[in-house]
TrEMBL record:
Domain of life (superkingdom): Bacteria
Species of the source: Thalassotalea agarivorans
Lineage: Bacteria, Pseudomonadati, Pseudomonadota, Gammaproteobacteria, Alteromonadales
UniProt-listed InterPro entries: AB_hydrolase_fold
Protein's UniProt name: Peptidase S9 prolyl oligopeptidase catalytic domain-containing protein
Length: 75
């Protein structure tokens, strides 16, 4: 986690509220660690009505691609 925070690599994590494979509680410690290390671009979205395939909605969202395009590699 430290290298991600150190280099300020943008993070947008997604979870599904009805996911039986991965409980959303497991996301919070990692995200909190990034924030405690001074990471400034950490986002977390929970799709409460989705099962394990939350990525379907994510990849169909214009917001996701717009967010990606606002970032660039550091030189």
């Amino acid at each position: 986690m430290a290298p991600i925070a150190q280099h300020q690599i943008p993070v947008w994590a997604f979870a599904a509220g009805r996911d039986r494979a991965i409980d959303i509680r497991y996301f919070y410690p990692g995200l909190a660690t990034l924030e405690s290390l001074g990471h400034k671009d950490v986002r977390f979205t929970v799709h409460e009505d989705m099962g394990h395939d939350a990525w379907t909605r994510v990849y169909q969202s214009e917001d996701f691609y717009s967010w990606l395009l606002t970032h660039k590699l550091a030189q």
